[in-house]
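Structure ticket #2291
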Amino acid sequence: MDTADIKTMVRARYGSIAAAESASCCAPAASCCAPTTQTDAADKARAMGYSDAELAAIPDGANLGLGCGNPQAIAALRPGETVIDLGSGAGFDCFLAARQVGPTGHVIGVDMTHEMLAKARANAGQIGAANVEFRLGELEHLPVADNTADVILSNCVINLVPDKQQVFQEAFRVLKPGGRLAVSDVVNISPLSAELRGDVELICGCVVGAAPAAEIEAWLAAAGFQQIEVTVKPESRELIATWAPGRHVEDYVASALIEARKP
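Resolution: structure written out below.
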């Protein structure tokens, strides 16, 4: 599939998730394990490392059960900071970040899916989140000025983008000097079988598009980042197994925390 085909498929998949208000992280549409209730989505978020207090702090409908970890755990957000969330979905991480940066801070969510943006904006209206905004855009071409953000967050979205190196270059551009990257995503830990590699649904399923940690580190360094760390989370196997039950995708990809700093 070429880049345009991949983007069209990803946009359609996540647009349908926003409309249905349920999903399993990036799971193919045929997954029998997609959550169908807020309880299912909350259980998945807890498995990713979110606390009950965090889940209670967000508006109904912001947590769609998506993600593969908790970037908030490594972001160390402070009052007054500006945060950009890459692939912000229904706004889950944006609303949590907004509470931490406070009224003097600002959070910008970027997503390429109109349905997700509409849902995120409606969620923001529910709670009167005046320090949060959502912008339409692709991660390879962020609708954000140079040197804007103190922190960039993302949760299991960069793997969906065909040109990941360009994403990291854009992240570097929009960060202020000294700004930091705090990302949760999947990494490839073993070469995919031919069967999995040829399954186009697993592109949307956060499997086929996962890159090895060494490749991510090289892209970050080429973009100009320093203090680069990619920490693979072996305990994510149980969660990842639910994305494509019986396919053993947990043998090929794992969740990882990705950290870096712009000098």
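Closing remark: The chain has a mean pLDDT of 90.
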